[in-house]
């Protein structure tokens, strides 16, 4: 079984995340969208909401699952038998960050392969943090989140 973990905060899920996951569906038998619970990272939307939104977006995708985890991403990968870590790449800044993490993860867990999908050009400027900023200041970011996700 080709199992991939797509880790992130998904605070909230964006059309950028949605696109990466949907494009990866034909590549893997199972994709686990894994929400990392990082103790020192302040979240904007409650974890229940973030899970609910992802579940809604992928309700017709039987190979996409949702999970929460704490601790190291590679330890979660080991636990669920995933040999692939899926990440999206937007910019060279993403690349430089991902390169470090990916190379260290490979050293800690040699069986893991990090797979990168380039974001679509129209998603390059999009991030969860920009959505939080818009919504936090009273704006409407609905065009940046998947259909059906209501950011309230
Ligand atoms: P993190 O907390 O690790 O930054 P995110 O929830 O922001 O997690 O992102 C999870 C994954 O989705 C990362 O691989 C990130 O590069 C990718 N990603 C985020 N935004 C986009 C986007 N607009 N287009 C494509 N991939 C994206």
Describe this entry's structure for a reader.
The chain is of the alpha/beta class and 152 residues long. It has one domain: Rossmann fold (3-Layer(aba) Sandwich), CATH 3.40.50.620. Helix content is 36%, strand content 20%. It is built from five helices and five strands; from the N terminus they run E-H-E-H-E-H-E-H-E-H. It has helices at 15-24, 47-57, 73-79, 92-108, 128-136, and strands at 3-8, 30-36, 64-69, 84-89, 113-118. It has a five-stranded parallel beta sheet with strand order 3-2-1-4-5, with helices on both faces. Helix 2 links the parallel strand 2 and strand 3. The protein is globular and about 45 Å long. The N and C termini lie far apart (37 Å). 28% of the residues are buried. The mean pLDDT is 96. The structure holds adenosine-5'-diphosphate (ADP).
**What is the tally of helical segments?**
5
Quaternary organisation: single chain
The profile of the biggest β sheet is: 5 strands, parallel
Our estimate of the beta-strand percent is 15-25%
Q: Cα-atom Rg, whole angstroms?
A: 15 Å
Q: What distance lies between the first and last C-alpha atoms, to the nearest angstrom?
A: 37 Å
User: Helical percent range?
Assistant: 25-40%
Uncertain segments of ≥5 residues (pLDDT<50)? none
**CATH superfamily annotation:** HUPs
Inertia-based shape: globular
How are helices and strands ordered from N to C? EHEHEHEHEH
Domains (count)? 1
- Structural class, from secondary structure content? alpha/beta
* Order of strands, widest sheet: 3-2-1-4-5
CATH architecture descriptor text: 3-Layer(aba) Sandwich
Which ligands accompany this protein? adenosine-5'-diphosphate
CATH class: Alpha Beta
CATH topology: Rossmann fold
Total E-strand runs: 5
Quote the average pLDDT: 96
């Amino acid at each position: 079984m080709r199992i991939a973990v797509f880790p992130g905060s998904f605070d909230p899920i964006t059309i950028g995340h949605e696109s990466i996951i949907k494009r990866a569906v034909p590549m893997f038998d199972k994709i686990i969208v894994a929400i990392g619970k990082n103790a020192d990272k302040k979240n904007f939307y409650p974890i229940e909401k973030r899970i609910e939104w992802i579940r809604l977006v992928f309700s017709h995708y039987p190979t996409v699952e949702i999970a929460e985890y704490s601790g190291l991403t590679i330890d979660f990968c080991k636990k669920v038998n995933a040999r692939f870590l899926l990440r999206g790449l937007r910019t060279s800044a993403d690349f430089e960050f991902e390169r470090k993490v990916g190379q260290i993860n490979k050293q800690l867990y040699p069986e893991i392969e990090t797979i990168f999908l380039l974001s679509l050009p129209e998603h390059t400027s999009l991030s969860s943090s920009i959505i939080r900023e818009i919504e936090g200041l009273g704006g409407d970011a609905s065009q940046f989140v998947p259909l059906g996700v209501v950011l309230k």
